[in-house]
Amino acid sequence: MASFDLDQIIREHFGRIHRAALILTGNPWDADDLAQETFLVFARNRHKFRGQSSTYTWLYGILLNLDRRERRRQGTHRRKLQDLHDEPAQSEPAPPADLAVEMAEWRRGLWSQVARLPDAQRQALVLRFSEGLRYEEIATVLECPLGTVKSRIYHGLLGLRRLLEQRESAEFSAVPDFSHE
After folding, report:
1. By CB count within 10 A, which of 84, 107, 117, 124 is most buried?
2. What is the largest CA-CA distance in the chain?
3. Domain range 1-94, its CATH number among 3.40.50.620, 3.50.30.80, 1.10.1740.10, 1.20.1250.20
4. Helices (H) and strands (E) in the chain, counts
């Protein structure tokens, strides 16, 4: 069992965990909550860490588990609201203008398309390309074989390519044709 200086762990890893949380959630409020919850879980369970992986790899595992749990909870909550009201759940209040612009830019960006991928592919791509983890580290975080990680990244990149091509095609078809005037 390893001994930890919790403040040092937070200083070293909070930025990376928060960035991954932002990519996973797509908004700064949920990212703040998810990153903070990751470190709370770490603090409560650090005695369980056996040192078989690096600390940040273990933190990413916690982050992804919390993200999965929250997505399941939100999906269940939305379905219950729809059943109850027979209409979609109300949207959240509008964010301040500067955050609205930032979120609009994010939605147009590459990571917004990654966020549309299935969870397993999305998580693998975030860990590889946003966080720079090696394939072996990703396998440890996701608790799956190395071949599965490679497959998820490969299929994630294919799916991302399709999404980007669809978006590009839609944007191109929305451009008015003035050549016949």
Report:
1. 124
2. 75
3. 1.10.1740.10
4. 8, 0
Quick one: pLDDT at residue 88? 45
Q: What sign for the dihedral angle of Cα 100, 104, 110, 111?
A: positive
Higher local confidence (pLDDT), 124 or 176 = 124
Predicted TM-score (pTM) of this structure = 0.62
Asked whether 40 and 86 are in contact (CB, 8 A), the reply is no
Give the end-to-end CA distance of the chain in Å, rounded to a whole number. 75
Q: CA-to-CA distance for 88 and 157, rounded, in angstroms? A: 31
4-35 burial: b if 16+ Cβ within 10 Å, else e? eeeeebbeebeebbbebbbbbbbebebbeebb
